[in-house]
Amino acid sequence: MPSGKAVWNQGLQFVATSGSGHGIVIDAKKEKGGFDAGASNTELVLMALCGCTGMDVVSILQKKRLEVDDFEVAAEGEFSSDFPKRITDIEIVYRVWGSDIPAKALEEAIKLSKEKYCSVSNSLNSKITHRYEINP
Q1: What are the C-alpha distances in Å from 105 to residues 39, 64, 76, 81?
Q2: What is the pLDDT of residue 2?
Q3: Do residues 94 and 111 make contact, with C-beta atoms less than 8 angstroms apart?
Q4: Is pTM beyond 0.85 here?
Q5: Which residues sit opposite 95 in a β-bridge?
Q6: What are the tens digits of pLDDT across the range 80-106?
Q7: Domain that holds residue 88
Q8: C-alpha angle with apex 44: 50 to 106, nearest 5 degrees?
């Protein structure tokens, strides 16, 4: 079972450790009382989403024996204006580089990630849209 903890350091800064022993600094911007020495909580959510769906899509493309030379996933979120200022909308952009990457194969991999495999996207209460770029 996944686990983690966050230990307060100073200001609004925490050092979080996963159950597997990996650590990361979580912090707020200086104007909000932090030191801007680490990613914010919502940035971490978007980063986790990118990592989760990215792992799915690359794995699926590789299983289709497609040659992926490079790959990146970016996400931007919009927030509600009222508290809690939750992420209401997220746009994910998939960028893949490789020779002969069929759009249909990429679309299928993205759909499988979104609907079946990505535990992060399926844990969020946000509208998630996507687009992709296939680069030579």
Answers
A1: 33, 8, 24, 38
A2: 87
A3: no
A4: yes
A5: 72, 133
A6: 999 999 999 999 999 999 989 999 999
A7: 41-135
A8: 5
Question: How far is the C-alpha of 78 from the C-alpha of 126, rounded, in Å?
Answer: 9
14: helix, coil or strand? strand
**Cα–Cα distance for residue pair 6/16, rounded to 1 Å:** 4
Nearest-angstrom CA–CA distance, 8 and 113: 34
- Structure tokens belonging to residue 36: 């801007």
Residue count of the chain: 136
Q: Are residues 19 and 69 in the same domain?
A: no
Asked whether 47 and 38 are in contact (CB, 8 A), the reply is no
Query: Looking up tokens 């002969």, which residue turns up?
Result: 100
Same domain, yes or no, for 53 and 89?
yes
